[in-house]
Design goal:
Layout (H helix, E strand, L loop, with lengths): L1 H11 L5 E3 L11 E4 L2 E4 L12 H8 L10 E3 L2 E6 L5 E4 L5 H11 L4 H16 L2 H6 L5 H6 L5 H12 L11 H14 L3 E3 L5 H12 L3 E3 L4 E5 L7 E5 L4 E4 L2 E3 L3 H9 L6 H8 L6 E9 L8 E7 L11 H12 L6 E7 L1 H4 L9 E9 L10 H15 L7 E7 L1 H8 L30 E3 L10 H24 L1
Parallel strand pairs: 1-8, 5-14, 12-18
Antiparallel strand pairs: 2-3, 4-7, 5-6, 9-10, 10-11, 13-16, 13-17, 14-15, 15-16
Helix pairs in contact: 1-9, 1-16
Bound molecules: flavin-adenine dinucleotide (FAD).
The site of flavin-adenine dinucleotide has 36 residues, from helix 1, strand 13, helix 15 and helix 16.
Length: 482
């Protein structure tokens, strides 16, 4: 998402652009594969702002007409929440929110005090100025919630709601980032999925880049980048033996990969190299792609959690329970409660499967590759499957095939060290003014993607960063010409 956005903006601005992709197919986390007539996303995605966020912005910026832009499809419900005493449906239209609130209060048996405190929190969130939000960049979601309630169950529920998209525990996520993203999502009211699958977005951006003269080479893995010297040309070498020179290199792998593996930390100021070394990434997920004989699920997205411990009910977890569960993950143990996120691509675009069939993309949180697993990888996949059986029982007996995508295979596809969902996580010291810049402190090297710059949820963060990186390149080249 970051690379295709930057390429499209730069080519549209008239620069000679070469895009090198190590895989046989474009798209990275948003790429796909095909099997038995199903077009299957490599990741598991919902788009929190659809065309109203950075993905729409970048397409408008490069002059794509409304007809040429990727079409996003909204579902009448944002998601269905399972694993509660009864399933809850989160509506997309604002006029259905009061009924939803009543349903929520009844299902979770929220006390009048809990309702009042939550109301105060949301009122504050939606009336804060940008400057007030920025103040919260350096403090956590948990600290923000604690201003309104000390009820452990409510802290857990609100923390999960605000922190989910960052694939991190809410006591580490920046409150400013979470409030900003949540507000944009509610205001834009366009949680959606694109026609053609997630890959339609990078594909459209790359097509646009090519139409403006860019060249795209797949199966071209960059193994070395030498920053520019006196001739102001950086040198790039690929595993396949090609060599290139460029005035600017925009790199879309993680900052750690770029600095430590592709360039070498010795080329950077020591303080910068040490900061990159200390960057924290998000967690990631083990995924199951499930092909169903028929349409079994009538929602675009289902979220929930399945408990492996009798008596431990996901909706009654205390703060201590949440800390223990994330502690288990940090130790490399399968968590006692497995959160599950199931996206249904064919709900939005039935053409992604043969007629009448349904495709599910399901993921459950898992540690990145730097954590040594206490149980073999297959146990994580089995636990996710048990959670699927528990939370999506209507799919049993209807499955044509299930593909499991382990963290390791995701990592080898996206090429980011340790395979994170978001390579520079949105923690208190990695967002806003403290987010690493898209401009690196060596001449002619830039970062685009979820590793540097930008604000927002996953894919949208990456696109915002791609536009920032392109702007930085254009600005620096223009300055060099003056
Ligand atoms: C399981 C999962 C679920 C997610 N769910 C959501 C969601 O619901 N909503 C959301 O918005 N976000 C979600 N995300 C996050 C989102 O997918 C990412 O943050 C975003 O797509 C990252 O984009 P990127 O451009 O930074 O990197 P990537 O998509 O990882 O792209 C990097 C590209 O660089 C290429 N590359 C790497 N190294 C080299 C090299 N040496 N030479 C050449 N090419 C190279 C890779 O092959 C890849 O194409 C999810 C992520 C995961 C893993």
């Amino acid at each position: 998402m970051g690379g295709s956005s930057a390429a499209a903006v730069l080519a549209h601005a008239g620069l000679r652009v070469l895009l090198l992709e190590k895989n046989p197919r474009l798209g990275g986390s948003c790429s796909y594969y095909q099997k038995h007539g199903f077009r299957i996303d490599f990741g598991t995605h919902m788009f929190s702002r659809g065309p109203r966020g950075p993905i729409g912005e970048v397409q408008r910026r490069i002059g794509l007409s409304a007809e040429q832009q990727v079409r996003f499809v909204r579902a009448p419900t944002i998601c269905q929440v399972r694993g509660l005493p009864k399933p809850l449906v989160v509506p997309a239209s604002p006029w259905r929110l009061p009924a939803f609130a009543i349903d929520l209060i009844r299902t979770l048996r929220l006390s009048p005090r809990e309702v009042f405190d939550s109301g105060r929190l949301f009122a504050a969130m939606f009336t804060m100025t940008e400057a007030e939000i920025a103040v919260w960049d350096r403090r956590t979601i948990e600290q923000f919630i604690l201003r309104y309630t000390d009820n452990p169950r409510l802290i857990g529920l609100l923390g999960l709601l605000l922190g989910l998209y960052f694939v991190l525990p809410f006591w580490t996520v920046s409150a400013g980032e979470a409030i900003w993203c949540f507000r944009q999502m509610v205001r834009d009211n366009y949680v959606s999925y694109p026609l053609g699958g997630s890959s339609a977005i990078p594909q459209r951006l790359c097509d646009a880049a090519v139409s403006h003269g860019a060249t795209i080479r797949c199966n071209a893995e960059v193994v070395r980048i030498e920053p520019a010297g006196g001739d102001r040309r950086a040198r790039i070498a690929t595993r396949q033996g090609a060599q290139y020179q460029a005035r600017a290199v925009v790199c879309t792998t993680s900052l750690k990969d770029l600095v430590q593996r592709l360039i070498g930390a010795e080329h950077f100021p020591a303080r910068f190299a040490s900061r990159v070394d200390g960057l924290r990434s998000s967690y990631v997920a083990v995924q199951c792609k499930i092909a169903l004989r028929r349409n079994c699920i009538s929602h675009g997205c289902i979220v929930g959690a399945a408990s492996r411990v009798p008596g431990l009910k996901p909706h009654l977890l205390s703060l201590a329970d949440y800390r223990r569960i994330f502690g288990e993950l940090e130790q490399g143990c399968v968590p006692s409660v497995m959160p599950l996120y199931c996206q249904v691509p064919t709900f939005f675009d039935p053409s992604l499967a043969p007629v009448g069939r349904q495709l599910l993309s399901v993921c459950g949180v898992a540690p990145t590759l730097d954590v040594s697993l206490q149980q073999p990888e297959r146990v994580w996949a089995e636990t996710l499957l048990q959670a699927i059986d528990q939370l999506l029982p209507e799919t049993r007996g209807e499955r044509l095939f299930i593909d499991t995508i382990s963290v390791r295979s995701l990592g080898s596809w996206i090429g980011k060290v340790n395979a994170p969902a978001i390579s520079t996580a949105q923690t208190t010291d990695q967002v806003g003014a403290r987010r690493p810049s898209v401009r690196l402190p060596v001449q002619g090297i830039y970062a685009a993607g979820d590793g540097a710059g930008g604000r927002g949820v996953g894919t949208e963060l990456a696109v915002a960063s791609g536009m920032l990186a392109a702007d930085a390149v254009l600005e620096d080249l223009a300055r060099a010409l003056i």
